[in-house]
Amino acid sequence: MPGLTGAVLADQIAQRYPGLPVAPLTGNAGIPPLEPASGVPVSRKPLGPAELAARLRELAAATTDT
């Protein structure tokens, strides 16, 4: 995303839509991903089906109805 990192986007989503689960991924293997200020972990691509399913389960478990 030109001019925008996944970490910044995750923070913007968290500010605009509190409680919305976000699962940012990075395809840039050469640079360690930045942790968003919102504390959302950033996963690295390629992400296999089992890893993706585990990440989505974590998000679902952490999500609360408000």
TrEMBL record:
Domain of life: Bacteria
Xref: InterPro entries: CheY-like_superfamily
Residues covered by region (Disordered): 25-46
Protein's name in the database: Response regulatory domain-containing protein
